[in-house]
Amino acid sequence: MTDAVAAIPEETAPVPLLEPREGLPPVVADETALAETVAAFAGGTGPVAVDAERASGYRYGQRAYLIQLRRAGAGTALIDPIACPDLSALGAALADAEWVVHAATQDLPCLAEVGMTPRRLFDTELAGRLAGFPRVGLGPMTENVLGLSLAKEHSAVDWSTRPLPEPWLRYAALDVEVLVELRDELERELDAQGKLGWALEEFAALVDAPRPAPRTDPWRRTSQLHKVRRRRQLAAVRELWLARDRIARERDVSPGRVLPDAAIVNAALAMPLNAPALLAVTGFGPRANRRQLDQWLAALQRAREIPENQLPPAAAPHDGPPPPRAWADKDPVAAARLSAARAAVTELAEQHNLPAENLITPDLVRRVSWEPPATPDAESVAAALRALGARQWQVDLVAPVMAEAFSTPAE
């Protein structure tokens, strides 16, 4: 196995990547320019580097506000998906190309919204994980593999800004400048480690993955919700969260900019009855206008009026096994199986120099440990893992060690 993290000697200082090699292209913001871009990329060759910039923390939702592409023979394109919201023609032009994306799970949903969906892809972040790199951000990967440094000072800016400042556009263009070269080096590294087949299975799974279903009770993801113990107070969190979400959607701003999570939890714990009492709650203050205060007070009042038998349950409903911390009381034998399986998976991941969660997801380990096959041999465990969506390379590696762990569970 090669040493992935030593691809570039430590004493070699990375070379700053400061300018796109063909200069900064104009932003594509009308149908004429888009048609020219589609034609250019349809005539390009080889993989196409794809990236998207969102306005997380500023705007509601995760839509793309800038899309960057680069392909041999076509150069780099910067596309404004607000001015050009239908990019299905571009997606069709790239249908037969392999897309090179860094952290595909972040970008694929917003690309699909504008009509761009890959048939094949190479995820350089996931490739870095499988190859054993300890830091898999685009900046560290580019430094470690190519010896080039990318400035990342604009990564968290408000990409919904118009017009976009030139330094931001330069940053965005550079994100796809060497992505294909990074892909090629990582492919060689994975092949040398005997992991290229694993990566190809993972990439295919990303392409074929269905769109995630809407989350059940998304309000339960409110930060610090663990402080809320009473069901009436949970109802207050839910009503405040729903009111905030409606306001954020109407104003197209990030919900946290309307009201922080901590303020929602504090108000639910205090259950203030009037505006002065609400203003005294940490997270609310003199900047809150009267209309906003009335909306929050109305949400709290709705929570007070919910019948007892309609209050939200203390724990979120789920279709899987109970939380692992409860296993020792509910089923000590299952708890022992889980402990043994986790230890076996961790050891196997260390042997192959990759994160345990990429070897097999913790959820699958829990599910099979909670309800193992009647005869928990390697073949039966393999069938259980496949039924839950594990890739074949994962099944081949993990099933034998889990079956062995089940036969001799930890005390």
From TrEMBL:
<dbReference type="InterPro" id="IPR012337">
    <property type="entry name" value="RNaseH-like_sf"/>
</dbReference>
<dbReference type="InterPro" id="IPR051086">
    <property type="entry name" value="RNase_D-like"/>
</dbReference>
<feature type="domain" description="HRDC">
    <location>
        <begin position="230"/>
        <end position="310"/>
    </location>
</feature>
<dbReference type="InterPro" id="IPR041605">
    <property type="entry name" value="Exo_C"/>
</dbReference>
<dbReference type="InterPro" id="IPR036397">
    <property type="entry name" value="RNaseH_sf"/>
</dbReference>
<dbReference type="InterPro" id="IPR010997">
    <property type="entry name" value="HRDC-like_sf"/>
</dbReference>
<protein>
    <submittedName>
        <fullName>Ribonuclease D</fullName>
        <ecNumber>3.1.13.5</ecNumber>
    </submittedName>
</protein>
<keyword id="KW-0378">Hydrolase</keyword>
<dbReference type="Pfam" id="PF18305">
    <property type="entry name" value="DNA_pol_A_exoN"/>
</dbReference>
<dbReference type="InterPro" id="IPR044876">
    <property type="entry name" value="HRDC_dom_sf"/>
</dbReference>
<dbReference type="Pfam" id="PF01612">
    <property type="entry name" value="DNA_pol_A_exo1"/>
</dbReference>
<dbReference type="Pfam" id="PF00570">
    <property type="entry name" value="HRDC"/>
</dbReference>
<dbReference type="InterPro" id="IPR002562">
    <property type="entry name" value="3'-5'_exonuclease_dom"/>
</dbReference>
<dbReference type="InterPro" id="IPR002121">
    <property type="entry name" value="HRDC_dom"/>
</dbReference>
<dbReference type="GO" id="GO:0033890">
    <property type="term" value="F:ribonuclease D activity"/>
</dbReference>
